[in-house]
Amino acid sequence: MSQRVVIDSLVFVREGGLLQGELPVAGLARALDMLADTAGELSYRVQGRMGPKTGQSSRPQLFLEVDGSLSVCCQRCLEGIDYPVRIRSLLELVKDGEELTQEEIEDDSKDFLSAQKELDVVELIEDEIILDLPVAPRHENCVLPDTGGLSKKAEKVEKVSPFSVLKDLKGKVR
Ligand SMILES: [Zn+2]
Q1: Ligand 1 centre and the CA of 130: distance in Å?
Q2: What is the DSSP letter of 11?
Q3: C-alpha 30 – ligand 1 centre gap (Å)
Q4: DSSP 8-class letter at 29
Q5: CA 109, CA 57: separation in Å to the nearest integer?
Q6: Strand pairing partners for 45?
Q7: If DSSP states are collapsed to H, E and C, what string results for 35-96?
Q8: CA of residue 2 to ligand 1 center, whole Å
Q9: Are 91 and 64 in contact (CB under 8 A)?
Q10: How far is the CA of 172 from the centre of ligand 1 (A)?
């Protein structure tokens, strides 16, 4: 189910790369524990560009956008809560050995990422989604399970084993 999209981050920026697509929610392995429903897809867009000049040089950047909606698990009733996803992250690529200034570290408008030759974009998106998800989501008004709350999961689907059907037939033939 999981897909991998790997880019060479510096080459991607140098070439002004643009990646976009749909990511199935079910493929977000590390986020699944926090979700009530794994149906649907999120759309993403990753854009490579050079950042503004600061001092002598400018750093390569990745601009990441993720949109869609997830169903997070209510901590009280365990039912889903619709959670709109709208992530806009600016990630500046830092090469090995390059040092960040204090000013840069304190800058909240962007994050830093080591420039990797094999950057797994899906993993990166997963990280951003996990950071974005609420820590302990709850419905404003909801009741605990088994106290008469509306539960979509209550409908049980009864599975009939084909073998049990066969058994019945045998009985009738005799
Ligand atoms: Zn709830």
Answers
A1: 20
A2: H
A3: 22
A4: G
A5: 19
A6: 20, 65
A7: EEECCCEEEEEEEEEECCCECCECCEEEEEEEEEEEEEECCCCCCEEEEEEEEEEEEEEECC
A8: 29
A9: yes
A10: 49
Within the chain, which residues score under 50 in pLDDT?
1, 149, 151-157
DSSP element (H, E) containing 21:
strand 18-24
Dihedral sign computed on CA atoms, order 35, 38, 43, 48: positive
| Mean pLDDT of all residues belonging to the chain | 85
**Residue 77 near residue 145 (C-beta atoms within 8 A):** yes
CA 140 to ligand 1 centroid distance, Å: 7
Cα of 132 vs centre of ligand 1, distance in Å, is 20
Break the chain into its structural domains and give their ranges. 6-144
CA–centroid distance, 43 to ligand 1, in Å, is: 27
Question: What count of other Cβ atoms lies within 10 Å of the Cβ of residue 31?
Answer: 19
94 Cα–ligand 1 center, Å? 42
Cα-to-centroid distance, 150 and ligand 1 (Å): 10
CA of 66 to the centre of ligand 1 (A): 26
Per-residue tokens: 94: 């830092």
Q: What is the pLDDT of residues 120-131, one digit of tens each?
A: 999 999 999 999
Instruction: Report pLDDT for 137.
Output: 94
